[in-house]
């Protein structure tokens, strides 16, 4: 839990920026649940400006992957595929650079900036964009005792390429100590291959090249975020490869 999200008895509370944002999230949650996307119902508590969710008892997605490795991916990706098949009014376009540009500093290596610009040119807006989670990784998943996998944290819902979620998922696994597989770039390719294979086996369609470009952008985003938390090692590895 964090300063923004905490447990309150049998509930989870999440601080939200304002009531308008809360209303959007509640409406989207209701629509997704009505279309068989397993995500917990949200309610707004105006007393402390929080969204309130029922606590879901189960196993975190990252733990499931630690136990079963790539064999877990098909089960864990099912709620994401269900999300990708829904159309919602309201979410804006996905911006792959939104969480990167504010974190860049003038001292960051030129090669990384050049890589970022090259990758961003490879992820154009798509006319057939679908609903995407916007921050999809194993920490957003819980498998309950019945085997149902719940999708959490819909704050970043957007319209974009499904490959943006898949690339981010692989980048997250490649940079987590629990699931890292050797050097970052090689580990990313390992997890990307298994992620795309699992997604396609359950009925999804994804372009490998586009998922790779989104994932490489996500690697830079992850590296910058981890640097903010005091760990510059992944950024140094990406910049010095």
Key phrases:
single chain, 3-stranded antiparallel beta sheet, 241 residues, 4-stranded antiparallel beta sheet, Aminoglycoside 3'-phosphotransferase, Chain: A, domain 2, 2 domains, alpha+beta
CATH architecture assignment of the largest domain: Alpha-Beta Complex
Q: Could you say which structural class the secondary elements and strand pairing correspond to?
A: alpha+beta
What would you give as the CATH superfamily of the largest domain?
Aminoglycoside phosphotransferase (APH), C-terminal lobe
Poorly predicted runs are none
The percentage helix is 40-55%
Average pLDDT level: 92
What is the overall silhouette?
Answer: globular
Assigned CATH class of the largest domain? Alpha Beta
Which strand order does the major sheet show? 1-2-4-3
Number of domains: 2
- The whole-angstrom Rg is 18 Å
Secondary-structure element order, N to C: EEHEEEHHHEEEEHHHH
Strand percentage: 5-15%
* Largest sheet descriptor: 4 strands, antiparallel
Instruction: Kindly state the number of beta strands.
Output: 9
Distance N terminus to C terminus?
Answer: 34 Å
CATH topology of the largest domain: Aminoglycoside 3'-phosphotransferase, Chain: A, domain 2
Number of helices: 8
Describe the protein.
- With 241 residues, this protein is an alpha+beta fold.
- The chain folds into two domains: 5-54, no CATH class; 59-239, Alpha-Beta Complex (Aminoglycoside 3'-phosphotransferase, Chain: A, domain 2), CATH 3.90.1200.
- It has eight helices and nine strands.
- It has helices at residues 19-34, 61-68, 73-84, 110-121, 162-175, 184-201, 208-228, 233-239, and strands spanning 5-8, 11-15, 42-45, 50-54, 59-60, 130-132, 141-143, 149-151, 158-160.
- Strand 3 and strand 4 form a beta hairpin.
- Helix 5 (162-175) crosses helix 7.
- The radius of gyration is 18 Å and the shape is globular.
- The two termini are 34 Å apart.
- The mean pLDDT is 92.
